[in-house]
Design goal:
By secondary structure, this protein is of the alpha+beta class. 16% of the residues lie in helices and 39% in strands. It has one domain: Jelly Rolls (Sandwich), CATH 2.60.120. It contains three helices and 15 strands. The strands form four sheets. A seven-stranded antiparallel beta sheet has the order 1-2-13-10-15-8-5. It has a four-stranded antiparallel beta sheet with strand order 9-14-11-12. A two-stranded antiparallel ribbon has the order 3-4. The protein is globular. It starts with a strand and ends with a strand. The structure holds 2-oxoglutaric acid and manganese (II) ion. Manganese (II) ion binds at residues 115, 117, 173.
Length: 194
């Protein structure tokens, strides 16, 4: 399978541009849109409560709960479709992911702000496997300490991005809003929770 290792210092990020083909993407996008229990969470910013600019869901092995931005999510049990996708990404990554955070970006107004995936339950060097379906979105990276060091790429439908090693120590990432019309996108970030 074609792979691209991003040429970034202090990072270990590999892009597999086409893990899934077009018909598989169409199938999984419809399936997940309809069968996942999507929720709208709220976040508190400067004392104000705001809806998160996307819908989310958390699935995984029993007991693998996850806390971020003050929200604790208890996993729903794997569905057959999620297990099917997990088998594909486990094989590529060479690990057994035990949980997945799903994000549904309904349109260009949905987004995810700058962050690193560095919560303690992800372990010292988090392994994050990110599968994208649907509308293409910009994925931006910036170095946490070397200001001006940045990179961006387009995450197209069917692509898989694997972040590992020290990446989360040194880099943040975001999915910015866009004014360009864009189809709904589902992103699945498979994780190992310790
Ligand atoms: O939607 C994406 O590609 C990124 C999602 C992400 O960074 C996350 O769930 O932590
Ligand atoms: Mn992330």
């Amino acid at each position: 399978m074609p792979t691209v290792l991003l040429p970034l210092p202090d990072a270990d990020i590999t892009l597999y541009p086409s893990l899934l083909d077009e018909s598989e993407c169409a199938f999984f996008l419809t399936e997940l849109t309809q069968t996942i229990e999507w929720r709208q969470d709220w976040i508190t910013i400067y004392g104000r409560s705001l809806p998160q600019p996307r819908l989310t869901a958390w699935y995984g092995d029993p007991g693998k709960s996850y806390t971020y931005s003050g929200i604790t999510m208890n996993p729903r049990l794997w569905t057959p479709t999620l297990l099917n996708l997990k088998a594909k990404v486990d094989a590529l990554a060479g690990v057994a992911f035990n949980s997945v955070l799903l994000n549904l970006y309904r349109d260009g107004n949905d987004s995810m702000g700058w962050h690193s995936d560095d919560e303690p339950e992800l372990g010292l060097n988090p392994m994050i496997g990110s599968l994208s379906l649907g509308g293409t979105r910009r994925f931006m990276l910036r170095h946490r300490f070397e200001k001006g060091l940045k990179h961006e790429l387009e995450l197209t439908s069917g692509s898989f991005l694997l972040m590992q090693g020290k990446t989360q120590h040194y880099w943040q990432h975001q999915i910015p809003k866009t004014r360009r019309p864009v189809s709904p996108r589902i992103n699945l970030t498979f994780r190992v929770i310790y």
